[in-house]
Structures are given as C-alpha cells and as structure tokens.
C-alpha cells in the first residue's frame, strides 16, 4: 500500500512486483545467504565463485558471484542494494506506524520510552527496535530452549488452541486494543518470549489478526523446519498491506541447509536468515541467558537488549497482561526489559480494563508534588561545561535552562515546585523546560513505572 508522498518501489509499495526482478533478486539473495550462513559454501565460493553458484542451482552472473564471494561480504550493489534500501524504509515505516497511538497518555509514555532508549542504548541500536505498542504471546514458555535466549524464555508449559472460545478471546483482545490504544496495534506480533511454531494452529491466529488489522504480523521462528508446510503456509499468506519480512533464527548450519532445500529463493526473498550458531561468528546480544551460554563469550555484543515492545504483552495461554519497555540488561533486569506485571485476567473485557487502568496512570506532563530525577544511567560529566553522560553511548549538553534543572537533579530528586523555587525567572518558563526534559526521557518521575 503506498502512502501519500511515498514512491513506488521494486519490492515494496508496488501492486504486483515484477516476477523477473523478484527472481533475479531472490537468486542473488540466496547466494549472499549461503555466503553468510554456510561455511562449506564460503570455502567453495572462495575457490571458484561461479561453480559454487552453479552447483547451488543459482543463475547469477559470474561478475556478481565473484563480487560477493568475499567474507566479510562487500557492500551491496545493484538490485541487492535497492532491495536492502527498500527493506530499511519498510522497517522505518513499521516503527513510525507503531507510534501512531490514539490514547493520549499511552502515546506520551510510548514517546518517552523511545526517547529514553536513544539515551540508554544509543540512537543506532534504538533505531533497530520497533517499540511495538502491543504483542500477544500464544503460548506460555518456549519449547526450543536456546541456551542464549536473549529474553530468558522459560520452558513450554501451555499452548493456545484455535478453539471457538480462544479465538473469540483473541479477537476481543486485538480489536479492543486497536480501539483503545490506536492504529499502532496493527504492527503487533504474535510472539515475544515464545515460539510461534509451538502453537499448533498458528496460521489460524495469523488469519484472524489479518482479518481484524488488515495485515499479516511478522513471524520470527527458531524452528522453521519443525513443520515446513506450516512455515510455508505462513510465508505464503497474503500480507494484507505491504510485504512482511519474516525471520528465521537458525540454530545450526544443518537447519540452514535444510531450509535452502525446502524453500526456493523466491519463497525466502522476504525472509531474514539469522544465523545463531558459533561458526557464523555473528554476535549475540548480552541479555537473558546469553551471558551464561557456553562458548559464546567472545561473541557477545553490548547492544543491551533484543526486546522490541514498548507497550502491552498479553499472554493468551496464561491469561496475563504486562506492560514492558526495552532497557539495557543488567542484574536487576537481566532480560533487557523493564516489566510491570503480569496481572491475571479472565476475559477480554478484564484484560482491556487492566490496560486502560495502567494507561490512566501514565502522565502526559510532570506531576506536581511527585519527585523527578535524572534517568539512572545519566550522570553529570566532569568537564568544564555541564554535560549529561551515559558513558560510551551519549553525551548531551542541555540548553541553558535545561542545564540548570539537570544540575539540581544531579544532586538528587526534586519535585517541580522545588525546582521552580530554586531557579530565577517565571515558574512557567522552568515548567516548560522540565516538561521538555521529561518528554525527551532525560528525566523521570521516581514513582511507578515511568522509565
Ligand atoms: S530465542 Fe526464541 S526460540 Fe529460543 S528459547 Fe528464546 S524465545 Fe524460544
């Protein structure tokens, strides 16, 4: 679907993509996926790129085969560069649409979390996080048990079945959240610390979601080969709006090879293959179980989190709802998320009531009488001019009045009236500055769930 002001692309925002372009791009992507995920293929391609491509059944030019037969991979060019550029734009649109929220208090809270993550995790890392306002987990725990699970998922306890009662609950939750929170809910996913393929009738939930929200939710699975037909069914689903990128977390080279045998290059053009095995030498985020995973020590990165929801996660199997937002994993929040809840519910009305109550407690402006503080990861720098620093991530120099407010808060929490009383000039001017710092996620209330 093309939004006003957007241009048509070759891969997205296009009615029916040109099959010749799709085939060509898919063959090229498969070659690059082989170079990224398959060490034996890398060796073959290093020795004879054209032959390696031919033996993999790929029809790409000898020039392209030679160009991409290097590891690490060179910068993308031609059709591949166009595909990646459009994919980047597609992700940017998801992030933007996820922030389209109708509920004023929730929208203000959501904006603050996005701003805070810029400062806590760094802008580059934060741009990778979608800050989805809503997610549904269809099972309780996960059967896969990856030793490096960044969300620390527990063992599989229970799964949701697509019986009439559960489907009604599911529909009530999705349409109720859409109504209450706003259009950003359309970007929801049907998993978090769960595995979609654990849900026997996962495609039925996807269909229902598409019927209600007009789009197929993104799927990330670590077991794409557990039931290839079911995986294929999801990949083939009408995306609703624009094409959806699904993701396969690959737990071994063997799984990757089986995927390439089972799925054609065209079937996986819109699938990200994410190697999660040591041979790939691709880093793992230090969060959840990964710091304790044996043999991964030198591959851990400091991105801080893989959590991507700033909003509500409803677990359909446990019948619980929680509010969550990404943060840098530490001993207190090992899974890289700050969580309020979970709270149990019995039916959709109760779940939506909990969501409404939590949203009602969110603030659009700083509240009088409640202490404010600098975010705990921000500290006054020791240079001559005043700065706030999160070492290795960000250094901010607030404007003049902002500096004065932050100097006060660097010494300890204070409420708005106290801050106004300690600064010269009209109180409304100070209040505006406090509001601006609050809105950007630089300062926060010290009570409740304001991070
Ligand atoms: S990484 Fe995904 S598949 Fe693996 S244990 Fe965690 S939730 Fe399950």
Sum this structure up briefly.
40% of the residues lie in helices and 14% in strands. The protein is α/β, with parallel strands linked by helices.
Per DSSP, the total helix count is 15
User: Helix content range of the residues, please?
Assistant: 25-40%
Low-confidence stretches: none
- Kindly provide the radius of gyration, computed on alpha-carbon positions and rounded to a whole number of angstroms: 24 Å
What share of the residues does DSSP label as strand, in percent?
Answer: 5-15%
| Average pLDDT level | 92
Biggest sheet overview:
4 strands, mixed
Number of DSSP E strands: 16
Ligand roster: iron/sulfur cluster
Q: What fold name goes in the CATH topology slot of the domain at 100-222 and 276-360?
A: TIM Barrel
Q: Quick one: CATH class of the domain at 100-222 and 276-360?
A: Alpha Beta
Terminal Cα span: 35 Å
Shape: globular
- In the CATH hierarchy, the architecture of the domain at 100-222 and 276-360 is Alpha-Beta Barrel
> Pairing-aware structural class of the strands and helices?
alpha/beta
List keywords for this structure.
451 residues; alpha/beta; TIM Barrel; three-stranded parallel beta sheet; 16 strands; 14% strand; globular; binds iron/sulfur cluster
List the helices and strands and how they pair.
Elements: H1 19-37, H2 39-47, H3 49-55, H4 62-68, H5 78-98, H6 104-121, H7 123-128, E1 132-137, E2 139-140, E3 158-159, H8 164-181, H9 202-213, E4 220-221, H10 228-235, E5 246-250, H11 253-262, E6 271-275, E7 284-285, E8 300-301, E9 309-315, E10 320-326, E11 337-344, H12 348-360, E12 372-374, E13 379-380, E14 388-390, E15 394-396, H13 400-410, H14 416-422, H15 427-439, E16 443-445
Parallel strand pairs: 1-9, 4-5, 5-6, 7-8
Antiparallel strand pairs: 2-3, 9-10, 10-11, 12-16, 13-14, 14-15
Bound molecules: iron/sulfur cluster.
């Amino acid at each position: 679907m093309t939004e006003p002001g957007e241009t048509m692309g070759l891969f997205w925002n296009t009615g029916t993509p040109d099959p010749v372009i799709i085939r060509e791009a898919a063959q090229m992507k498969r070659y690059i996926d082989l170079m990224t995920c398959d060490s034996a293929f890398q060796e073959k391609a290093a020795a004879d790129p054209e032959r390696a491509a031919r033996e993999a059944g790929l029809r790409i030019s000898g020039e392209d085969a030679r160009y991409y037969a290097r590891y690490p991979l060179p910068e993308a060019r031609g059709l591949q560069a166009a595909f990646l550029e459009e994919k980047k734009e597609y992700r940017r649109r998801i992030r933007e649409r996820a922030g389209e929220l109708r509920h004023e208090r929730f929208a203000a809270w959501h904006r603050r979390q996005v701003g805070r993550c810029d400062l806590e995790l760094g802008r580059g890392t934060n741009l990778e996080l979608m800050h989805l306002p809503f997610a549904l987990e269809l099972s309780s725990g996960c059967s896969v048990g990856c030793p490096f699970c960044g969300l620390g998922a527990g063992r599989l306890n229970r799964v949701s079945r697509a019986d009439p009662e559960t489907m009604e609950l599911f529909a009530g939750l999705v349409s109720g959240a859409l109504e209450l929170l706003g259009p950003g809910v359309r970007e929801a996913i049907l998993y978090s610390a769960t595995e979609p393929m654990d849900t026997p009738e996962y495609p039925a939930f996807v269909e229902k979601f598409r019927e209600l929200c007009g789009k197929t939710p993104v799927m990330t699975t670590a077991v794409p080969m557990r039931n290839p037909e079911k995986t294929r069914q999801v990949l083939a689903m009408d995306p609703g709006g624009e094409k959806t990128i699904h993701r396969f977390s690959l737990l071994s080279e063997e799984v990757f090879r089986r995927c390439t045998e089972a799925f054609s290059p065209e079937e996986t053009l819109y699938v990200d293959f994410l190697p999660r095995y040591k041979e790939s030498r691709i880093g793992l985020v230090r969060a959840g179980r990964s710091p304790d995973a044996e043999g991964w020590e030198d591959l851990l990165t400091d991105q801080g989190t893989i959590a991507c929801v700033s909003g509500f996660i409803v677990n359909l199997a446990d019948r619980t709802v929680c509010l969550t937002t990404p943060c840098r994993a530490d001993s207190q929040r090992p899974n890289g998320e700050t969580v309020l809840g979970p709270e149990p519910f019995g039916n959709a009305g109760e779940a939506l009531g909990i969501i409404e109550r939590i949203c009602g407690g969110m603030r659009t402006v700083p509240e009088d009488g409640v202490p404010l503080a600098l975010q705990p990861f921000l500290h006054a720098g020791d240079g001559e001019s005043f700065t706030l620093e999160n070492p290795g991530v960000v250094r901010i120099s607030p404007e003049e009045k902002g500096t004065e407010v932050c100097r006060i808060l660097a010494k300890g929490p204070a409420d708005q009236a106290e801050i106004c009383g300690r600064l010269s000039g009209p109180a409304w001017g100070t209040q505006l500055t406090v509001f601006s710092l609050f809105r950007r996620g630089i300062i926060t209330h010290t009570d409740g769930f304001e991070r």
